[in-house]
Design a protein that fits this description.
The protein has two domains: about 150 residues, Alpha-D-Glucose-1,6-Bisphosphate, Chain A, domain 4 (2-Layer Sandwich), CATH 3.30.530.20; about 300 residues, Rossmann fold (3-Layer(aba) Sandwich), CATH 3.40.50.720. It is about 35% helix and about 25% strand. The protein contains 14 helices and 20 strands. It has a seven-stranded antiparallel beta sheet. Strands 10-9-8-11-12-14-18 form a seven-stranded parallel beta sheet, with helices on both faces. Helix 5 packs parallel to helix 6 and helix 9 crosses helix 13. It is globular.
C-alpha cells in the first residue's frame, strides 16, 4: 500500500447560478463528459457504458504530446444530488480518483472537485514534472468551470422546457459539439443517420440520395437542426465534387422539409445551415442579412440551399437560415487544418492578407443555434459570426503570438490559384465581413467576442496570460 506521501491531492471549487440539484442533474445527463473535455487536449470518447451510477464505464483516447494512450474509467460511488466518484482502472496514473461534491450556498451551487492521484514512482518524480501535472489540472478545471457556467447561463436564458429535437449532420465537427450542449440542457435529441439505425440511441435512418425518409419513423418533434451536407474540403474542386456538394444540400433539405410538411403536427421551428459564403467576395463592406447573394459557386450553393429550406417557412414552420461563419476549434475545421499544415510555423498570409474572415468560436456557434431554436422572434437569414471580424493577416499574427510559433513566408494569390483553382478564389482569398446586429439585438450573449480571448480559451492559454499579467502588475 502506498504511503500518504506518495499521493497528491488537487481541489477546485466553483460556484454556479443554479441549485445543487440542477448542477448534479447537468452532470448526470448524456454529453456532460464531452462538454467538459478541453479542446486542446485531443481527447476522444471511444465508448461509454452507463452514466455516473456505480458500474458506469468510459474509454478515452488521450495524448501526451504526439503519443496516444487509452484511459479506462469506472464510476464507483454516487449519492444523487450530493456527489459521485470515478476512478482510473487503466491509464497513465498510478492512482486516480475524482470526487464531485454538490452543495447549495447563498451565492449559488458550489461544486468541489477533489482529485486524489499519484504518478508512477511518485516520490522519485522530479518536481518540475509534478508542477507540470498540477498546471495541466489547473488549466483543465478552469476550462471546465468556464464552460459549465456559460452553459448554465445559456440554458437559463433559453426556454427551460425540454424539447424533442431532430438533428442531421450530427457526426460532423459541428454536430459533435452541438449534441452534448443540447442533451446536457435536458433536451431529447434524435439523429438522422445513413447506416443501420440504433433506435435505442435515438437514431433514424435516411438516405437523401435515394429520397428515403419514412415519416412514420419520426417521433413528434418540437424542432429541427439541419446541418447535413457533403464536406466542401480544402482541395481543388472538380465538377463531380461541386455536384455532390450542391446535391447533398438541396436534395437532403427538400426531402426533410417535404416529409415534415406532410405531418399532421409539424415542428415549431426549422433551423437550416447555410454559410456567410452566400454573400460572395464583399471586400471590406460590412454586410447584413439584407444583402443579395454574391456570384460564384459558394453563393449559388447557399442560395439554393436556403431556397429549399424556405419550403418549411411556406408550410408555416418558423424557419431560420443559419449563415455560419468560420467556426474555430482545435478539434476540426480551419484551425485544425492550420495546425496540421504548420508544425514549425504559420503561413504569414494568403494573398494580400487583407481579406476579412467572419469567424466564430465553436461554443458561440452552437450556443447561437440553441438561442435561435428558442427565440421565437428570429426567422429568415441570420449571420452566425463573432462581432469582430478580422483580416487574414491579423488572424495569423494573433495565432502566432498566442502559440509562440513564428510566421513564415506568405503564399501569393497566384500560387494558391494555381494549386487550388476556384476553391482558392472563393474560400482562401475571398473577403467576408458580416454584421451580427440581428443576432445581438435578439438578446444573444457572446462568450468569445474577441479573437485573442477566443484563441486563448481554445488553446488553454487563459491562465498563462492571467499569470503573466499578475507578475507584470506586481510592484
Amino acid at each position: 500500500m502506498k504511503s500518504p506521501r506518495s499521493r497528491a491531492t488537487f481541489t477546485h471549487r466553483s460556484i454556479y447560478p443554479c441549485s445543487a440539484a440542477e448542477l448534479y442533474a447537468w452532470h448526470s445527463r448524456t454529453g456532460a463528459l464531452e462538454r467538459l473535455l478541453p479542446p486542446w487536449e485531443k481527447t476522444t470518447v471511444l465508448s461509454k457504458n452507463g452514466g455516473i451510477e456505480p458500474g458506469g464505464q468510459v474509454l478515452l483516447k488521450m495524448h501526451l504530446g504526439p503519443f496516444p494512450f487509452h484511459y479506462h474509467g469506472r464510476h464507483l460511488e454516487n449519492i444523487p444530488g450530493r456527489m459521485f466518484r470515478d476512478v482510473q482502472e487503466k491509464g497513465p496514473f498510478a492512482h486516480w480518483s475524482h470526487s464531485h461534491f454538490f452543495e447549495d450556498t447563498p451565492e449559488g451551487a458550489q461544486l468541489t472537485d477533489m482529485v486524489d492521484y499519484s504518478l508512477p514512482g511518485h516520490d522519485l518524480v522530479p518536481e518540475r514534472i509534478k508542477n507540470f501535472v498540477t498546471g495541466n489540472l489547473k488549466r483543465m478545471f478552469h476550462y471546465r468551470e468556464t464552460v459549465l457556467r456559460e452553459d448554465i447561463l445559456l440554458h437559463n436564458r433559453c426556454s427551460r422546457r425540454s424539447l424533442r429535437l431532430l438533428v442531421s449532420g450530427a457526426s460532423g465537427v459541428l454536430g459533435r459539439d452541438l449534441l452534448p450542449l443540447l442533451t446536457t440542457g435536458g433536451h431529447q435529441v434524435f439523429t438522422l443517420v445513413r447506416r443501420t439505425a440504433d433506435k435505442a440511441k435515438g437514431e433514424i435512418f435516411w438516405d437523401p440520395e435515394k429520397s428515403i425518409l419514412n415519416e412514420s419513423d419520426l417521433p413528434e418533434l418540437d424542432g429541427i437542426i439541419h446541418l447535413a451536407g457533403e464536406y466542401i474540403g480544402m482541395s481543388r474542386w472538380s465538377e463531380d465534387k461541386k455536384r455532390r456538394v450542391l446535391d447533398s444540400r438541396v436534395n437532403g433539405t427538400e426531402l426533410l422539409v417535404r416529409t415534415l410538411a406532410e405531418r399532421s403536427k409539424p415542428p415549431e421551428v426549422f433551423l437550416s445551415a447555410s454559410a456567410v459564403g452566400y454573400y460572395g467576395d464583399c471586400g471590406d463592406t460590412i454586410t447584413s442579412e439584407t444583402a443579395p447573394p454574391g456570384t460564384g459557386f459558394m453563393s449559388e450553393v447557399c442560395s439554393r440551399w436556403e431556397h429549399a429550406a424556405q419550403l418549411a417557412g411556406d408550410a408555416g414552420i418558423r424557419t431560420v437560415f443559419l449563415r455560419l461563419g468560420v467556426g474555430l476549434t482545435p478539434r476540426g475545421g480551419a484551425l485544425r487544418r492550420i495546425f496540421a499544415a504548420s508544425p514549425c510555423g504559420y503561413i504569414r498570409r494568403f494573398g494580400t492578407g487583407k481579406q476579412f474572415i467572419s469567424w466564430i468560436s465553436a461554443d458561440d456557434m452552437i450556443s447561437a443555434m440553441l438561442h435561435a431554436l428558442t427565440c421565437t422572434s428570429l426567422s429568415g437569414p441570420l449571420n452566425i459570426a463573432a462581432p469582430e471580424p478580422t483580416t487574414n493577416l491579423q488572424f495569423m499574427e494573433t495565432l502566432a503570438r498566442i502559440t509562440g510559433r513564428p510566421l513564415l513566408c506568405p503564399l501569393p494569390a497566384r500560387l494558391l490559384q494555381m494549386m487550388y483553382g476556384q476553391m482558392a478564389r472563393e474560400i482562401l482569398l475571398s473577403s467576408c465581413r458580416v454584421a451580427t446586429k440581428k443576432l445581438q439585438d435578439s438578446g444573444f450573449h457572446f462568450r468569445h467576442p474577441s479573437l485573442e480571448k477566443t484563441l486563448e480559451a481554445l488553446l488553454g492559454k487563459e491562465l498563462e496570460t492571467y499569470d503573466t499579467m499578475q507578475r507584470i502588475e506586481k510592484p
